[in-house]
Structures are given as structure tokens and as C-alpha cells.
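In this supplementary section we document a worked example of the pipeline. Step one takes a protein sequence of length 235 as its only input; no multiple sequence alignment statistics are reported here. Step two produces a three-dimensional model, which step three serialises into C-alpha cells for compact storage. The input and output of this example are shown verbatim.
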Amino acid sequence: MKAIRRHLTYANVISTLALLIALGMGSAYAADQLALKSVGAPQLRPGAVTADKIRKHAVTAPKIKAQAVKQGKLANGAIVTEKLARGVVIAAKIATDAVTPEKIPNDSLRGEKIDEGSLSQVPSAGRANFATTADTANPEAFAKVNAEGTVFPGDSKGIGTGDVKLGSAFAGIYCIAVPFSPKGAQATPEYSGHNSVSVFVRLGTAENCPASQVEVQTYNAGNHQKEPFYVVFYR
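The serialised model returned by step three reads:
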């Protein structure tokens, strides 16, 4: 110890302290100031970069390489509606056949999203509140007929004047040839100024018309009389 003290000088002490300070500052600099691009993917251990270590909004679209985010890299349920910006998913960004019927929830498409021309005829329906192109709402055959058996084309469909004949037994009997075998029919009088007009239609066996035709009878005050009427036929 005495030998060490004999060799200690002011210069020795100062130079030693300077060396220690330089080494300490160099180590700190090396730890805090890394060379540009010196740390890459090979230097990161698996799982080192987690979601809680990434600053909010630090990863933006321009910083993500094209095709870097693929389906296999997304966790199930990672993309939800709340995470999608309005208008970010457009038709041009959806691959052909990416959206299949199996991927669309039931009852998710509304009327305005459906091309009506792509729909075929509904085979059957138990109930419909309103329809514009259904057989029961817009029958294949109907007619507006005047008292002499003339059909108004603008108010008729599938039935023309040549399809309506006056019965010979009584006045007020009309025989109508329908282009199909109707399963139902309905006739109503047209207002003509008479007070007690009634109309009846008969399918199947007709007393005053050929068997293949539909018979319509019009009455006024309980007596056969020619009267204008409307008639509708259903399949």
C-alpha cells in the first residue's frame, strides 16, 4: 500500500479518472445511440414487439408494405366493424368471389341492395302484404267489359273482345274464353248509374256457355240485365 502511494501523482490520478469517465460515457452512448438501421428483424427476438409497446397511431398505412398483411396473419375476430373506417371497404378492394352466399348472414340484404331482375318467380307464399309482380296480385287475365260485351284493352290483360260472347238464353249472360283453366275468378259490377246491380261468375260446368268457358251473369234489381263489369281470373 505504501509502495502504491509512493507512485501516485496528481497526473496519474487525473488521467485515471479521465479514462474511467470516458469509458462510462462511451458505454452510455453506445446503449442509447444506435447506428441507423443497425437493429432489424434478425436482432429482435420472437414476441419482442407487442401491441402495448407500439405507440398509438405509430403504424399507419404508408408504413405497411403492400401484401404484408395477409389473411393467414390475422387472428380470428381481429377485424371487427368498429375498426373499419367508413368507406374503406369498397368493391374494387374485394376479390372476385370473395363474398359468397355462405359468408352473408341470413336476412342481411335489404330490398334496395337486391337486383330485382335477378329474382325468379316465387314458387309459393303463405302471405304477402303487398306485391307488384305476383300472380295473385297481378293476375294473368282480367278484363273490363261493357254491357254489350266489349272489352277495354287498356284496362284488360289476356282477355280481348273476341273472347267475350253474349249468351243467347237471357240478357246479361256473358261467356268468356280464358287462355288457361282458372282455379278462381272474381267479378264486380262497374258503376253505371243503376242502384241494384249484382254480378255472379261460375267456373266449371256453365249452364249457358260452352264447358271450357267461364260464365258471368249480371242482374239489376233481381232480374237479368246487361250491365258493365270487371272480372279477374286466377290460376
